[in-house]
Amino acid sequence: MSLGKLLNSSSEWNNKEEVLKTIYWIKQIYAILCGLVFGITPILGFIGFASFGVSVALISYSVAYTIMRVSQNVIDSSSTVITEGMFPALTLFILTWTCTYSYLHA
């Protein structure tokens, strides 16, 4: 599995689909965690959206180029890494954030 390969520091990432699939799932897991944290600590409005957007972009870029050490030959551009799975992650974040906040604070 790609997420297991992420924990092995000697792994090579030469397959574009595998890299993007791993980034996709990292974003989904991160979206759930952020939704829970933002819902428990009552963060509201634009601050929540902006914080999630910036942090998920930074994390996906960092994971791809620092932890996975993906070369530019494998991925066309850094925007591909940042935008891969962004909208499903945003949707999952909003759902988790809203449900957690409503359950705890409404």
From TrEMBL:
Entry annotated with the keyword Endoplasmic reticulum: yes
Top-level lineage group: Eukaryota
Alphabetical UniProt keywords: Endoplasmic reticulum, Membrane, Transmembrane, Transmembrane helix
Membrane-protein topology: Multi-pass membrane protein
Major location (coarse): endoplasmic reticulum
Transmembrane segment boundaries: 29-61, 81-104
Swiss-Prot/TrEMBL GO biological process terms: mitochondrial respirasome assembly
UniProt xrefs under Pfam families: EMC6
Cellular component terms per the entry's GO annotation: endoplasmic reticulum membrane; mitochondrion
Localization: Endoplasmic reticulum membrane
Family designation: Belongs to the EMC6 family.
Protein name: Rab5-interacting protein
Source organism: Naegleria lovaniensis
